[in-house]
């Protein structure tokens, strides 16, 4: 028989387990009503994301990756099922500034310096000038852009602009970072470099990241969990919990363990792919 203290310990463990769940999605579907009829963007999605996970959504065009990210961010409403973010509705989580969102294009205001772009959400939050300055310096440093504060976006390369937009998302100090193909438009060498930097940043800060990509090496290199989606209707085909070491460098991509996971992702993508796309 369990003692009262053991029951209490068990309850505490269960509660702290519960506290670590960042995203909980159950039987979630989303159908868009369009002039051409309904589009089943997401169907029967079940997914759990824990604190500190790096989760990639990968799948062919139109399988619902962006829609799923937008549901988490409260930018789209599911038509069935449930979702919580930090135990709250996506709307409450958004109002609590639970997440930072990084878009496909850097989306920086060209008439503002990089520092002023990063300051914008902080001004809206009502932080003092000194607090804004502190967060700008800290996050410019984190993305290796220290010294570029007074430049305008057009004076920076595409990769630097994307790093600046990551710094802007981080400056709000969210525990959750939602990233929609942030490096999709960059050449492969720059992309490798940014993958490496993002991995180190995640490792240092232990944030939870949800990341949309089309690239198998990017998904496998960055993720602790890879969610393979397939289209019509958009659904989860496979969830791969990566057993690669947390400490990673780009040469890991040549290892048999890496290639094995990449192979499983590729098989999942092939199964869900239509060559009409
Ligand atoms: N606002 C909308 N109204 C109607 N249909 C939409 C809307 N947004 C997305 N869709 C449709 O929902 C499906 C999923 O789109 P989504 O953008 O989530 O796919 P994706 O996997 O992110 O694609 P890609 O890789 O091309 O960015 C597609 O068929 C798309 O046309």
UniProtKB/TrEMBL annotation:
The keyword Signal does not apply. GO terms for molecular function: ATP binding. Residues 20-256 form the ABC transporter domain. Keywords: ATP-binding, Nucleotide-binding, Transport. InterPro entries: AAA+_ATPase (IPR003593), ABC_transporter-like_ATP-bd (IPR003439), ABC_transporter-like_CS (IPR017871), ABC_transporter_ATP-bind (IPR050166), P-loop_NTPase (IPR027417). The keyword Manganese does not apply. Pfam families: ABC_tran. Belongs to the ABC transporter superfamily. This is NitT/TauT family transport system ATP-binding protein.
């Amino acid at each position: 028989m369990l003692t009262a203290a053991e029951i209490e310990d068990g309850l505490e463990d269960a509660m702290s387990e519960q506290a670590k769940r960042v995203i909980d999605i159950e039987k979630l579907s989303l159908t868009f009503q369009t002039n051409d009829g309904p589009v089943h963007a997401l169907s029967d999605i079940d997914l759990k994301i824990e604190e500190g996970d790096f989760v990639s959504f990968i799948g062919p065009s139109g399988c619902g990756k962006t829609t799923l990210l937008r549901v988490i961010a409260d930018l789209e409403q599911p038509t069935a099922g449930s979702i919580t973010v930090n135990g709250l509705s996506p709307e409450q989580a958004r109002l609590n500034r639970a997440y930072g969102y990084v878009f496909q294009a850097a989306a920086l205001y060209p008439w503002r310096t990089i520092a002023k772009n990063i300051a914008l959400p902080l001004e809206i939050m009502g932080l003092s000038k000194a607090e804004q300055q502190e967060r700008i310096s800290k996050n410019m440093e984190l993305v290796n852009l220290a010294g570029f504060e007074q430049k305008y976006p057009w004076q920076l390369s595409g990769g630097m602009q994307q790093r600046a937009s990551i710094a802007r998302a981080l400056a709000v100090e969210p525990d959750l970072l939602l990233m929609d193909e942030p490096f999709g438009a960059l050449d492969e060498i720059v992309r490798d470099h940014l993958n490496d930097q993002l991995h180190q940043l995640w490792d240092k800060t232990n944030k939870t990241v949800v990341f949309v990509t089309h690239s198998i090496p990017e998904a496998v290199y960055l993720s602790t969990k890879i969610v393979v989606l397939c289209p019509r209707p958009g659904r989860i085909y496979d969830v791969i919990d990566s057993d690669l070491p947390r400490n990673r460098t780009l040469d890991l991509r040549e290892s048999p363990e890496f290639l094995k996971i990449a192979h499983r992702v590729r098989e999942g993508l092939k199964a869900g792919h239509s060559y009409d796309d």
